[in-house]
Write a structure and sequence with these properties.
The structure is a homodimer. Chain A has helices at about 15-25, 40-60, 75-85, 100-110, 120-130, 150-155, 190-205, 230-235, 250-260, 270-280, 300-310, 430-440, 475-480, 510-515, and strands at about 30-35, 35-40, 65-70, 90-95, 115-120, 135-140, 150, 170-180, 185-190, 215-220, 240-245, 265, 290-295, 315-320, 325-330, 350-355, 370-375, 395-405, 410-415, 420-425, 425-430, 445-455, 455-465, 495. Chain A has about 525 residues and is α/β, with parallel strands linked by helices.
Chain lengths: ~525, ~525
Amino acid sequence: MIDGSIQAFPLTLNRILDHAAKWHGDAQIATATDHGIVHIGYAALRERALRVSAVLARFGVVLGERVATLAWNSQAHVETWYAIMGMGAVCHTLNPRLTATQLAWMLGQSGARILVVSADLLPLARKIAAEAPDLERILVIDGDAGEAEALEALIASASADVKWGEFDETAPSGLCFTSGSTGAPKGVTYTHRSNFLHTLRLLQADVLGARSVDVVMPVVPMFHANAWGLPFAVPAAGGKLVLPGRHTDGASLARLIAAEEVSIAVGVPTVWLGLCEHLEASGTTVPSLKRIVSGGAPLPPALMERIEGQLGVTVQTSWGMTELSPVGTFGVLSDAVRSAAMSGRPALGVDLMLADESGVPLAEQRDREGRLHVRGGAVIERYFGQERPVTDADGWFDTGDLARIDARGNLMITGRAKDLIKSGGEWINPAEIEAVISALPQVSLSAVIGRADHKWGERPILLVELREDQDISDEDLLGSLRGRVASWWVPDAVIRVPGMPLASTGKIDKTRLRAIYSNH
Amino acid sequence: MIDGSIQAFPLTLNRILDHAAKWHGDAQIATATDHGIVHIGYAALRERALRVSAVLARFGVVLGERVATLAWNSQAHVETWYAIMGMGAVCHTLNPRLTATQLAWMLGQSGARILVVSADLLPLARKIAAEAPDLERILVIDGDAGEAEALEALIASASADVKWGEFDETAPSGLCFTSGSTGAPKGVTYTHRSNFLHTLRLLQADVLGARSVDVVMPVVPMFHANAWGLPFAVPAAGGKLVLPGRHTDGASLARLIAAEEVSIAVGVPTVWLGLCEHLEASGTTVPSLKRIVSGGAPLPPALMERIEGQLGVTVQTSWGMTELSPVGTFGVLSDAVRSAAMSGRPALGVDLMLADESGVPLAEQRDREGRLHVRGGAVIERYFGQERPVTDADGWFDTGDLARIDARGNLMITGRAKDLIKSGGEWINPAEIEAVISALPQVSLSAVIGRADHKWGERPILLVELREDQDISDEDLLGSLRGRVASWWVPDAVIRVPGMPLASTGKIDKTRLRAIYSNH
């Protein structure tokens, strides 16, 4: 090999906060708390995060060890993330919307001895502890620790003289279990390199394109799939990070957006529905907001229209999953044609492929429906604790989604392979029915599931949550499908629900809907 | 270490063209030739580049072997780059503005057996060949090969069934010799990883931020410092790449900008001076142009004002050097305060430090002048063929530039350490004098060099090239310095030059100026 070369520069995540602290030291992180909004600059936050590392080191945390967090989006949670990852430990995020038994099982898998918890989640943490024998210590952030151990008190006496980095960039940095609809939850292990490359992908101008003048509010939780990578990408760009804490209802978000002049807000569709409804009811506006990034679940076209019309913002769609770190595609803001159904295009660093049911690539990749496969520097190879890769011989990961890709490279998710309903030996795709129903102005949320049927095996039924003060007959609901889907796809029944059950990630919880309605 | 993880994804440069071909296959590369502008899409270009790899493989080119190019910015040169790098060979770019003897010496260093040359540079290539015993074969691109061997003919019979990538990402991809002002030229070896990370840095919204809708014209040559990374960054974003070929005078560029609707143009200040003068003389405009990126040499404030005023574009300043791949800092477009003297800020992936003469970091890094040091994933560690690193114990590379950094992180280059004039035992900084003189509306270019003086050792003299139809007296020139620099810094003489000598990179050639004027 040729002699003479470039410096080593391991892509470890501590570099992101190091960079933010040095070059954007006064740029702020704002957190909504029960006692108002608190602020800190990146330089001060880094200093505190180093102290948290010192606290963890004092408790014997070593390279590669898992440390768990059960916390909302807050400054203290960000500090804890960088503290754990910076010292080379692995941040195992727990989702407070799961049960203590589920979370204790996950802790058993990761073997974490230390759990950092938001004060109001302490009761849940104690229940988890009762079922998690490995757990040795609970450290409380985000409020009054009561008789428990407060991380803040430990920080005060800790030194910031801690070494970050200086381990291999392929070292694990995070662990997140997906609450799959079938089987036991599966863990996705992120690495420093994968999260760093994911960050650089997000920062591309045709993706999130965060800039130092941007004020970005991730409503997507830090306990799920890296909060879409925003606690890395926003400091990396030197932007302001606004964290909503535990309140993500429309009124709380509207207040926070106004107070901090949020320009870009990121979250699942139901969050934006809540914001729209609050603003409509209260007659208030959020003039600072310029862009809303939506993802995590299909965005009803009517909701996209409503958000853009009512809020005067641009909606940027996206698609991803926990196994992708999580971003796969992002809507391109300068594209002439945008729509709620288009989840955007893949940027350099991720690649898409459509295959048939057995994983063989479709001969024609454009304007055909196929099973979506993904490959890239932030895409899973093996689940936690498993030896067998979940990628095929060519490195493709099967997402389980059905999709089309148009001539310009825009991804359209057309359904979940697992969601399909088999009726009389033929497949019905609930997503196509839901897309039509969700476009009705009276409809807030809709879901189509299969119901056991002795003649056809399964038949579709439609569950709807209407918008407040709106009404529509069953006939009109089902009539809207005429000519849009095959006549035998039209659901056998309409069930009105006052509130659609949502899973911990904000998506409609079809597992719960099936449990209640599939055999009834 | 924890079990379960993310896919391997080696950062090799072929992935960039693979991505562009798959996701932006119809996006264009346009090249100005003597017979009009020719176009090709990324998908077709990739197919041709694969065939070039096959041709090189047929000639026995192996992993790590150097293959040289002596060519203008053209489609064929881009194909040759990706062909060489994609197959794991090393692209050794030669600067046609150097002498045959200099270039033959560089070829001797790299050991390249094959030279790819633009047709009109064939006479120079033959002179080089006469002095370069290792050179076995010359392949002609960009025009009529005459009796020489045309690459195009070989492509026609080659197969595109070639493997790219599948080597380590730290493998070398490119080699570029810097024509230093003292000593023998030194080679900088780029790696796949360093250029890939450099590309991702450029794509950040606060740096170049190239998007798929952008039409980008690199006037900066591909034979020098990767053409600032644009032949990687623009395809990576799916943008249109417009290549000027060998003609970079104002009239040629204006025609090309108009024909291809260039929105972003990138080059050294003298190029923009030429464009401004042509547009003024011809009474034409370039309405598609939105942004000009300037770098490679100090940008006179008057020229920045002139460009922005006359062309109606935003000037984005930058600073870099061959040893940095080459971008160090980039002006941030959204910054409230911009100026010609500010070279912008470092984005994630590069770090700056100011030191004293012995390399010790200044205690206060802001608003102090120091010697600029750099560290990062695309910064040199060792020159070609040298065992000794040029970085210090902490990994810092000494740029030789003098600089300040303001409170917001903006870099201001204040001079070259080597340029300083020692007069009566005290230092005079030519850059500060030049900044005042260049700001005069009558002045096109200015340079201050030291002249031997038996009393003071050295004394500064001022060389100026005035704008056409402009005049100013020596008294007024020197009078403009009053109160702006120390009185003993005022040059002893003013010498008017009809045309300032420019080095091969477009910077003022002070080595030549010194050779002519320093002892006279």
